[in-house]
Amino acid sequence: MAHFTDLIVKCTAKVASHLINEIRNFIDQEALARRWSFDADATERIGNTISEPYACFLYKDDGNTVVALLALAYTPAGEGYNEGRLWVANVVPRLKDHLEPLEYNRIVQQFADDVLGPVLAQKFSELTYEISGPDNKTSSDNTVEEDDDNVYDGRYADFKIGVSPTGVPIMYTCEPKRLANSFGANPGAPQFLTPVFFRTSVLDKYRDEPSRYDVESGCLRCKRDGSVLWCIQIDNHGTDCVSVCLGDLGSLPYAQQLHFASQNVLKGEVSDTFFRSQIDAEFCDSPHPVAVFKSGYYKLLTVGWEELGWHLLLPLTEQDQHYMSALKLLTHNEQKEFDEQILALTKILIDSLNEKELHRFLSCDERGISLFDKVLKQRNVLGSEQHVKFLRDLQDIRSTFVAHRKGEKYIRVSRRIGLDRLSLSEVLKRLFVEGINFLQFLTENIDKFK
Length: 450
Hints:
Elements: E1 6-10, H1 13-27, H2 30-33, E2 36-38, H3 40-46, E3 54-60, E4 66-75, E5 85-93, H4 101-123, E6 130-132, E7 158-163, E8 169-173, E9 195-198, H5 204-207, E10 213-216, E11 219-224, E12 227-233, E13 242-245, H6 246-249, H7 254-262, E14 264-265, H8 272-279, H9 289-308, H10 321-325, H11 335-349, H12 355-358, H13 368-378, H14 385-403, H15 408-417, H16 424-444
Antiparallel strand pairs: 1-5, 1-6, 2-3, 3-4, 4-5, 7-8, 9-13, 9-14, 10-11, 11-12
């Protein structure tokens, strides 16, 4: 079973930064330096692509050969998490194309045993780490529901990977053992890393069940009771298609392979972000509007809490996390899809305005956007007009498109936001861009709310 270990420490960004420094000092000891070392070059390559703090460490075998790179990254409170966390974001192989789940899990466990556990015990007695894996169930129930995500019966689906000179689709199995790799296996067969392309709607099934699946930037994960049943790298950084390496598809249960096969298309292009992150092992942000929006949202949560001690936008409750998980560009350009995204955006950006804290600046009967607008003016925050207008437009769209019957006001709002000349997909993409600008505006002006 493809079952990957997660290793996390719940903490603030400041504590995470301190913890990373202590880890670096700890592994400088001679006994540990033979197995672990800080990779300054890889850490520097991350640059400004993810929220600080972060760090990369090289893992070496008994022969002092570098086997893999382990990346630690910090994620603030947000999608699926009510607290910030320092976690093992990835283990990148250095000697071959990919790591089998058992290899990946062994390295993560080794890091916990050699480094993280001792550092916490010595320097951070108030912190503990959480690890979930094949032998580390976080739930007391060790049984796993027998369903399509837990059935590996040796069957592998065929996928379209190209077109023959006569125009016939070229089909090939995703069984990893029958694919070629850079180490000479199966000469003449397609490479393990051959990209296979899918409609963007292939991920809708997983977004619709956030309690069972995580659809993240570059990753699709199936979870049960705190454990990960399977996890594959995906290229969802573009807006026209999704791609997955042919060999990675073979790590999915057969039922999930069939789902992907039903959405298989021939035309597509691997994003530069996926190529750099998965092939060149570089760290880079996704340019996808939804990924950029989420990144901006999480950055605001972190900066706000660190600088103010409170949030301008209240974090979503556990019951409302599905609004964040469901964010996407439209895959069918239909009204129902559009309405669902508008509802999610208003829940995240408008309904979450921290009125209790805003009222500390201004004692009045105003609420919501009107209160926020008056506080911005009272604090002399320049350039707020366009962002307040965006929030009012978003509120009007929800009122006329989602909450009430569509009448004359719907027609007026439709014209105002451009639906008389643009498609629903184009309007939603523009709203995501305005949302990104709004989040950046708040982050850049966070000091005005001290």
